[in-house]
Amino acid sequence: MAYFKYTARTRDGKLDRGFIEAESTDDVVARLQAKGLIVVSFNQAQKTSEKKTKKRFHAKIKLDDLILFSRQLSSLLSAGITLLRSLEIVQGQISSKRLYEAITKIKESVSAGKSMKDAMSAYPKIFSKFWLNLVGTGEATGQLGFALEQMTQYLESRASLRRKIVSALVYPAVVICVAIGAILVFMLKIIPMFAGIYESFGAKLPLLTMVVVNISYVVKKFFFLSAGIAAGIIIVFYHYTKTVFGKRNIDELLLKIPGVKNIISEVAAVRFARGMSMLIK
């Protein structure tokens, strides 16, 4: 028996990709057609041990990595491939070093007799409680492939929502950056130039103008010190937001802002509804 990676379409035209175990190419076509699929293409899957070239990894685990892991594992399990063999095949497609190493340990734990849920629970920073509960439900009902399919849909909806939020924030972020750049140009170049011109005339400047000129002088003289302090504040704030206490305080502050409060509440409600829908299914 060999493993084949296939691309097919359902009767209503939806694209379906995955893996299937078969004895020959004719058997692949026969098995897919028996499932009511229209075969587009397929080829034999290469074993992980046969891959010669060194794979390039990225350090962090992106949401797309988890989507790929969930989708491919779901397809393999639904095709009747064993869990250990499915994990082995999926591992060869992972680009995240942390996730790759986690899957290695998960395979070892499953091979030693642990459940998938227990094996994944060793990595709480990668797999949330929602992940674990859904996988546990899938194992208990014998529908792990379906459970992972639901998880894939949930992660894809999260990714789509995140892209929309980022897209909506791009314009304000660009405007703020341009505004900061313009202010720095005025402070470091234009204001000192006009201050020198007025000083050469011996003209007495108004109080507000003098304040602006003095601020410009301080910023220009201690620019690197000011930039270092600003960078330090940003770094400290970033690490503060990663702590439990910091996250709680930031969330409480955001929930007090009228417009932002509504957006956060709606996003939380959508996530809750999607999660509950998946668990009920």
Task: Fill in the keyword field for this structure.
mainly alpha; Receptor-associated Protein; 3 domains; 3-stranded antiparallel beta sheet; 3 strands; elongated
CATH superfamily of the largest domain: Type II secretion system (T2SS), domain F
State the low-pLDDT regions, or none: 48-53
Shape estimate:
elongated
CATH topology of the largest domain: Receptor-associated Protein
Count of structural domains: 3
Q: Record the strand order, biggest sheet.
A: 2-1-3
Number of strands: 3
Number of helices, where a helix is a run of at least 4 consecutive DSSP H or I residues: 11
Label the CATH architecture of the largest domain: Up-down Bundle
Determine the fraction of residues in helical runs and give it as a percent range.
55-70%
Task: State which percent range the strand residues make up.
Answer: 5-15%
Give the termini separation.
Answer: 33 Å
List the helices and strands and how they pair.
Blueprint (H helix, E strand, L loop, with lengths): L1 E8 L5 E8 L2 H10 L3 E7 L18 H16 L4 H9 L5 H15 L4 H5 L8 H13 L2 H58 L5 H15 L1 H20 L1 H11 L3 H23 L1
Antiparallel strand pairs: 1-2, 1-3
